[in-house]
């Protein structure tokens, strides 16, 4: 089961075991991780599950698709090269650990 570490702006960390087949966003919402609002419930219609991925994450997930790319231009916190919508980050059994940084604001 993949471990996902959510790092808050103040450095606080929440480490979760999230089942493979689950998105990073769903794992966060189910555990009440602060800062992952997910207003649209993972339907790729908002940008309130924005995260900054840690080193090496780009190799583990598909590239940003056009719809996600458009929404990333609407995030409350600045978009970075490692910005992703956590609803689009599906976890697999091949993933050991993942670190994501939660922006200070989502709305």
Structural write-up:
The structure is a single chain. By secondary structure, the protein is an alpha+beta fold. It has a single domain (3-101), classed as Ubiquitin-like (UB roll) (Roll). The chain has helices at residues 24-31, 66-72, and strands at residues 3-7, 13-17, 50-53, 83-85, 97-101. It has a five-stranded mixed beta sheet. Strand 1 (3-7) and strand 2 form a beta hairpin. The radius of gyration is 12 Å and the shape is globular.
The amount of beta strand, in percent, is 15-25%
**Side-by-side strand order of the widest sheet:** 2-1-5-3-4
Structural class: alpha+beta
Order of helices and strands: EEHEHEE
What are the low-pLDDT stretches, counting only 5+ consecutive residues below 50?
none
Q: Keywords for this structure?
A:
single chain, 107 residues, alpha+beta, Ubiquitin-like (UB roll), globular
Task: Summarize the SSE layout with pairings.
Blueprint (H helix, E strand, L loop, with lengths): L2 E5 L5 E5 L6 H8 L18 E4 L12 H7 L10 E3 L11 E5 L6
Parallel strand pairs: 1-5
Antiparallel strand pairs: 1-2, 3-4, 3-5
Short description:
With 107 residues, the chain is of the alpha+beta class. The protein is 14% helix and 21% strand. Strands 2-1-5-3-4 form a five-stranded mixed sheet.
């Amino acid at each position: 089961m993949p471990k996902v570490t959510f790092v808050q702006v103040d450095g606080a960390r929440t480490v979760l075991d999230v089942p493979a087949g689950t998105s990073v966003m769903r794992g966060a919402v189910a555990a009440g991780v602060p800062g992952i609002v997910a207003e649209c419930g993972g339907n790729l219609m908002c940008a309130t599950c924005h995260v900054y991925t840690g080193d090496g994450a780009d190799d583990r997930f598909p590239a940003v698709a056009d719809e996600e790319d458009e929404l990333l231009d609407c995030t409350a916190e600045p978009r970075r090269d490692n910005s992703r919508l956590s609803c689009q980050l599906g976890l697999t059994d091949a993933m050991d650990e993942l670190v994501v940084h939660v922006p200070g604001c989502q709305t």
